[in-house]
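dumping this here so i dont lose it
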């Protein structure tokens, strides 16, 4: 089980790194389009701010969150995008940045203050504090990649990618189910090279179905920030190969993902972003 304090520390660092990218931007920079169709840099930050607000509500007032979620789920295909759009419409860039910054800090305090074993309601099954923080980190990293791609910035991968990898590996069966497919019965072996050269391994060592490659590339694939053909991931076995075609670390329906890059991509060959992760 992940240590909530360690995940929260990494979540804070991930947010601070993204803030360093957007804080210096002039107004026109916030209006710059990102690879996610119809989303500007402002939309990316607004989405993170909106989702952090919902996570904070879950951690501090579960009853109010349940009411909010019930209303949101009457529009399951649009409520996430609608929340981001509302903030973009209401707040100028400086205020939006402050909203996101303040919300991140409040969420950190709220999650850190939850007792051991606490379960937080969400739009799917309830989550532990560590799982909520990991999900927020994954989203911050993925939407940060959209921002970095829009700005033409190549980010240095960090050990925080391990949290994104963990979600992607654990979400294997979910990826099959959202495509209307039955997950394979056997476990896969996943061996990924971390930014520092270490190997992060999951699954039985003697598994027939195997995935190997760079951790960064797996994260780009699982968050649908890059097309598989632009990444250095290797599959052994037909089931492992199929999984790489449908993998997703985010909740909700399958995202369209990005088209293959026509030029060298940013951050390991990334091109377009996918649907919003919850």
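and the seq i came up w/
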């Amino acid at each position: 089980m992940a240590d909530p304090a360690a995940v929260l520390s990494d979540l804070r660092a991930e947010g601070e790194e993204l803030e360093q990218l957007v804080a210096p931007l002039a107004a026109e920079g916030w209006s710059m389009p990102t690879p996610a169709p119809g989303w500007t840099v402002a939309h990316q930050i607004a989405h993170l701010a909106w989702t952090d607000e919902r996570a904070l509500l879950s951690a501090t007032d579960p009853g109010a969150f349940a009411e909010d979620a019930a209303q949101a789920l009457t529009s399951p295909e649009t409520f996430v995008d609608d929340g981001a759009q509302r903030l973009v419409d209401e707040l100028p860039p400086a205020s939006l940045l402050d909203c996101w910054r303040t919300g991140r800090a409040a969420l950190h305090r709220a999650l850190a203050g939850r007792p051991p074993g606490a379960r937080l309601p969400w739009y799917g099954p309830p989550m532990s504090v560590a799982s909520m923080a990991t999900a927020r980190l994954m989203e911050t990293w993925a939407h940060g990649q959209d921002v970095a791609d829009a700005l033409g910035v190549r980010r240095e991968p960090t050990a925080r990618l391990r949290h994104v990898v963990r979600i992607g590996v654990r979400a294997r069966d979910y990826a099959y189910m959202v495509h209307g497919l039955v997950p394979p019965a056997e476990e896969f072996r996943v061996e990924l090279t971390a930014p520092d050269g270490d190997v992060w391994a999951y699954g039985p060592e003697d598994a027939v179905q195997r995935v190997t490659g760079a951790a960064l590339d797996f994260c780009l694939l699982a968050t649908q920030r890059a097309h598989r053909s632009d990444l250095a991931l290797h599959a052994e076995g037909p089931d492992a190969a199929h999984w790489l075609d449908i993998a997703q670390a985010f909740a909700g329906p399958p995202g369209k993902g990005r088209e293959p890059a026509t030029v060298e991509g940013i951050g390991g060959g990334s091109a377009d972003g996918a649907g919003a992760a919850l």
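The radius of gyration is 18 Å.
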